[in-house]
Design goal:
CATH architecture of the largest domain: 3-Layer(aba) Sandwich
Oligomer: single chain
CATH class of the largest domain: Alpha Beta
Number of helices: 5
Strand order of the largest sheet: 1-4-3-5-2-6
Order of helices and strands: EEHEEHEHEHHEEEEEEEE
Number of strands: 14
Radius of gyration: 19 Å
Shape: globular
Distance between the termini: 22 Å
């Protein structure tokens, strides 16, 4: 499986980007603890980006069931381990796994396993240094994985682990609405989150997933440049077709 990582790196002057050089000796695993609808990797990336310094928290990667987002370079420290200037913050790569209600946690874990393997190979980090957040601060995190931590580590060593195929692989979305159909920058129906519109007969070449947003559903889609957007999944407005 091709491991696609979407860069959403904080700017150098961002208050949540410490800017300290580090040698990554560990990979620290977290789970978000956020069960809210739509609280996927993109939403957590937007959350971190929008922090104004009132809360100094950051990590390197967020993983959900269809996407991996990178927030900081591997060779810079982050504030994710709760141990001040200890090894957790200063010498480990922080990986957050999403737990949102409308996502598939098991698939997110499989994707995180592949990311961890990639980081291990890149930085020469042994399996013994894949650790839970709890190691550094005592916090009950990753809450959803601690009861099965040994099994999680075994998955990292199991090269036969493959995430489930995407039902929408090879499918495209087309607007059938005879006007301008809005699409959004995040899972939302709000005017402020509208990113643009598509005409009837136009759409998106890639469908990633179908997600629940409020009382309705949206498709998480990508345009030809790989940018992720959200658009209504109502068959009154769109249709799903084989890619062409």
């Amino acid at each position: 499986m091709l491991l696609e990582i979407k860069p959403m790196v904080l700017p150098k002057n961002h208050p949540c980007r410490p800017g300290y050089a580090m040698r990554p000796d560990y990979i620290t695993i977290h789970t978000t603890g956020n069960r809210s609808w739509g609280a996927d990797a993109l939403m957590h990336g937007r959350y971190m980006r929008n922090l104004n310094g009132s809360r100094l928290v950051s990590w390197h990667y967020t993983v959900d069931d269809s996407l991996i987002i990178q927030h900081l370079p591997d060779y810079e420290s982050a504030w994710h381990a709760g141990d001040g200037n200890g090894e957790g913050n200063r010498n480990s790569i922080g990986v957050e796994i999403c737990e949102h209600e409308d996502g598939n946690f098991e698939e997110a874990v499989k994707r995180a396993v592949l990311l961890v393997r990639t980081l291990q190979k890149r930085h020469g980090i042994p399996l013994s240094r894949i650790v839970p957040h709890k190691k550094w601060s005592g916090k009950n995190c990753p809450r959803a994985l601690l009861p099965v931590w040994n099994e999680f580590i075994e998955k990292i060593g199991n090269n036969n682990l493959i995430p489930r195929g995407n039902f929408y692989l090879g499918k495209r979305l087309e607007s059938i609405y005879p006007g301008l159909l809005r699409f959004y920058a995040c899972p939302s129906w709000k005017d402020v989150d509208v990113a643009g519109t598509v005409k009837q007969g136009y759409g998106f070449p890639i469908i990633i997933a179908k997600v629940k947003v409020g009382a309705g559903y949206q498709y998480r889609v990508k345009n030809s440049k790989g940018v992720v957007y959200y658009i209504t999944a109502s068959p009154k407005y769109v249709k799903v077709e084989s890619g062409r």
